[in-house]
């Protein structure tokens, strides 16, 4: 379990994450939604110790992330950041090999190679493994980054807006891949998402943030409601039940 207790971050006079406490489970998909500037990325960055906190603690299966060596934390959780632009001219395989760094320290063992092969196959990238990253489409590149975190092979996988710049087919492909990871591998996937309907259709739990605080937290049917969504986004939604999922419409 990831236990977040009273996590706080301010920039000057603005408190952008304000005493957030929550627990993230050992398996399943948890999506964090909320408007621009709500503090979603800041929260995720503190949980993954990319960013220090002004106050509060984060423990991952009992390990204090702020007090532990990076290598130890990197064996517990992996993170896909929002900005995955890559200037280095590396191949898909080389990118995925980076995921093994916490295990290999740069020297790939046979076990590492097997993990890389498996991650490539799982993400349907085996045929593209020798292609330079910069020659891939947005969807292929995103899958390559997902394969990199998969190769890291941690229980907790945290992704900040992994559907950025993807068309519907590729976004659906990435969400299905993450669902499979949660179900078949028993991973705990935590995502920041802007598309509330992907969050609704694919998550076990949705955490809705606004102004640095969690304002709703529960299964999709309790968060994807006109009332809750109005509180989060300040606009009108209609919500429809479609094939068992709660789908919000907000086109006007
Ligand atoms: N380095 C920084 N310096 C000053 N303010 C910052 C910094 N990083 C983030 N902020 C501010 O903190 C607030 C929360 O930002 P954050 O990126 O966490 O929001 P978000 O919910 O992820 O937003 P988005 O949906 O736009 O990505 C915003 O008001 C942002 O301007």
Description:
This protein is of the alpha/beta class and 252 residues long. The N and C termini lie far apart (40 Å). The strands form 3 sheets. A 6-stranded mixed beta sheet has the order 6-7-8-3-9-10, sandwiched between helices. It has one domain: P-loop containing nucleotide triphosphate hydrolases (Rossmann fold). It has helices spanning 40-47, 70-74, 92-98, 101-104, 110-122, 138-152, 168-185, 196-202, 220-223, 226-233, and strands spanning 2-11, 14-24, 28-33, 55-60, 63-64, 77-80, 156-160, 188-192, 205-210, 213-218, 238-242, 245-249. α3 (92-98) packs parallel to α6 and α5 (110-122) runs antiparallel to α6. The chain contains 10 helices and 12 strands. The protein is globular. Residues 11, 16, 34, 36-42 line the site of adenosine-5'-triphosphate. It is found in: Cell membrane. Its main location: membrane.
